[in-house]
Amino acid sequence: MPNKFLSSRLRKERAGETVSVDDRKYELATDDVVTLPEANAGALVERETAERLE
């Protein structure tokens, strides 16, 4: 099954370094638009650190 990716925009003033579910580190800032594996982007959206983009 292929990995699904989601695009999202960061909402917090500064998300800072985030360690993803795949153990990669991302340095994220407000208004960054990123495309991450679904599990990673979903976690950011769930914590209200990011909003999902369609």
Topology:
Blueprint: E1 5-10, E2 16-19, E3 25-28, E4 33-37, H1 38-46, E5 50-53
Antiparallel strand pairs: 1-4, 1-5, 2-3
Structure, described:
By secondary structure, this protein is α+β, with helices and mostly antiparallel strands. The chain has a single domain (5-53), classed as 3-Layer(aba) Sandwich (Ribosomal Protein L9, domain 1), CATH 3.40.5.50. 17% of the residues lie in helices and 43% in strands. It contains one helix and five strands; from the N terminus they run ββββαβ. It has one helix at residues 38-46; strands at 5-10, 16-19, 25-28, 33-37, 50-53. The strands form two sheets. Strands 4-1-5 form a three-stranded antiparallel sheet. The longest helix is centred in the last third of the chain and has 9 residues, at 38-46. The radius of gyration is 10 Å and the shape is globular. The chain starts with a strand and ends with a strand. The model has no long low-confidence stretch (mean pLDDT 83).
Which CATH architecture would you pick? 3-Layer(aba) Sandwich
Number of helices: 1
Oligomer: single chain
The domain tally reads 1
Rg result = 10 Å
In total, the number of strands is: 5
Helix content: 10-25%
Q: What is the overall shape? A: globular
- Secondary structure category: alpha+beta
- In spatial order, strands of the major sheet run 4-1-5
Query: Sheet bearing the most strands, described?
Result: 3 strands, antiparallel
CATH topology: Ribosomal Protein L9, domain 1
Poorly predicted ranges? none
At the first level of CATH, the class is: Alpha Beta
SSE topology string: EEEEHE
Question: Per DSSP, what share of the residues sits in E-state strands of 2 or more residues?
Answer: 35-45%
